[in-house]
Write a structure and sequence with these properties.
Strand order of the largest sheet: 1-4-5-15-10-11-14
Shape: globular
CATH topology of the largest domain: Rossmann fold
Radius of gyration: 20 Å
Number of strands: 15
Number of domains: 2
Helix content: 40-55%
Largest sheet: 7 strands, mixed
CATH class of the largest domain: Alpha Beta
Bound molecules: pyridoxal-5'-phosphate
Length: 434
């Protein structure tokens, strides 16, 4: 019988994360202090981030052990299943083999707890009492709320205003695990008040919400800030996703020819793909890696590769990345988690060096793909993940034309149970591309 679901035992779960910084042929361009344009010193980041996370951000170690307390919490839902999408293959009539890694099985419904748990843990170790953060669609806020709850840390979430009102149940989930959440821009910060005065009707953006969360962390002792994506340590923590898939593929006769992930800040894409890129760099494999982003916020496909701020108030260090400009406010598309002006420096470098491809899709076609997937595989995908599904379907249809039996892996970064208002709009024909 052919596999439908490839599972690992708890004791087969990887016990380390993979750090691609150790394998880059040349070092990644360092984050710069915007005033001096000199590389940032670790001590400059300490008011904002836990020391261990700063260390991981710059670490030259290839493998970093996952502490036992983190493994114990991961085990609540990990290892996550790898599925073979037999029914989707049949609907498409493709000779390709389609696999997907199901990160929707975490309590928060996405891959984000993989790094949230780690960040809350290291902050707890260093005595942090409160963590502030931003959230776009609410997935990161709920993942961090879950994680802070486990380590008795207070958590405050600035949620992008358009999502706060579009996704009221994500807000409830954030409250359920004990964090507080307010719409951003908010009157609680200097930057929020300034934006509200200038643009009273703004949808908000991740860039604005990040500025607010950092402002609060910078002004208060024992308060730190956590970022759900973009930074090297978030990509590092997500590599458990790709490392698990490699162990799972060992239980099959297959190995992916193509690995696909949707890209907002780049963390789930990095997580699923970096272990395959490690093998590509080592000359063992020649796996194609594809990043998929929304046409409405196309940093990798249309942005410039340059130093830019991570937030709108220009409080973060300068990061070398593909960016649409830190002042860019993306349209309120339904894939809220992909509305970010930049992309992770690691992912950006891989795209710039031709080690990763990038493409974009409009939102109507990604909802078409989401519905095809839900009606074959059953799972209702997050609109973000539907970008990866659309790309996997396109690649599988190419195989149908050429008769190639390629193996395609994509990351199902999360489920869409809190996105039903968007699905309703799609079914009523009100969902447009802009
Ligand atoms: C946040 C999120 C994304 C985008 O973030 P990345 O850091 O690019 O992975 C994608 N899918 C889901 C389900 C998300 O919650």
């Amino acid at each position: 019988m052919e596999h439908t679901k490839i599972l690992l035992d708890e004791n087969e779960m990887p016990t380390h994360w993979y750090n691609i910084l150790a394998d880059f042929p040349e070092p990644l361009a360092p984050p710069l202090n915007p005033a001096t344009r000199e590389p940032i010193k670790p001590s400059e980041l300490e008011p904002i981030f836990a020391k261990e996370l700063i260390k991981q951000e710059m670490s030259p170690e290839r493998y970093i052990d996952i502490p036992q307390e983190i493994l114990e919490i991961y085990k609540l839902w990990r290892p996550s299943p790898l599925h073979r999408a037999h029914r989707l293959e049949k609907v498409l009539g493709t000779p390709a083999k389609i696999y997907y890694k199901d990160e929707s099985v975490s309590p928060a419904g996405s891959h984000k707890p993989n790094t949230a748990i780690a960040q809350a843990y290291y902050n707890m170790k260093e005595g942090t009492e409160k963590i502030t953060t931003e959230t776009g669609a609410g997935q990161w806020g709920s993942a961090l709320s879950l994680s802070c709850n486990y380590f008795d840390i207070e958590c405050k979430v600035f949620m992008v205003r358009s999502s706060f009102y579009q996704k009221p149940y994500r807000k409830s989930l954030i409250n359920l695990w004990g964090a507080s959440v307010i719409p951003s821009p908010s009157p609680e910060t200097q930057f929020g008040r300034m934006i509200l005065e200038k643009y009273p009707d703004t949808n908000g953006s991740l860039g604005i919400a990040i500025s607010e969360a950092i402002e609060v962390a910078a002004l208060n002792d024992n308060t730190k800030y956590a970022l759900g994506s973009v930074l090297n340590h978030t990509c590092l923590h997500q590599t458990i996703v790709g490392l698990e898939t490699q162990k799972q593929f060992e239980k099959t006769e297959d190995y992916p020819d193509i690995v696909i992930g949707c890209c907002g800040g780049g963390s789930n894409l990095a997580g699923v793909s970096l272990p395959y890129i490690r093998d590509n760099i080592a000359g063992k494999t020649d796996t194609r890696i594809i990043a998929v982003e929304p046409s409405a916020c196309p940093s990798l496909t249309e942005g410039r590769f340059d130093y830019d701020f991570g937030d709108m108030a220009q409080m973060t260090p300068l990061l070398k990345m593909y960016t649409l400009g830190s002042e860019f406010i993306p349209p309120a598309i339904h894939a809220g988690g992909l509305r970010y002006h930049g992309a992770s420096p690691i992912v950006s470098k891989l795209v710039a060096d031709g080690m990763m491809e990038a493409r974009s899709y409009h939102q109507v076609e990604i909802f078409d793909a989401a519905v095809t997937f839900a009606r074959s595989e059953g799972i209702a995908p997050a609109p973000e993940s539907a970008h990866a599904i659309k790309c996997a379907i396109d690649e599988a249809l190419k195989c149908k034309e050429t008769g190639e039996e390629k193996t395609i892996l994509f990351n199902l970064s999360g489920h869409g149970h809190f996105d039903m208002a968007s699905y309703d709009m799609y079914f009523s024909g009100k969902l447009t591309n802009e």
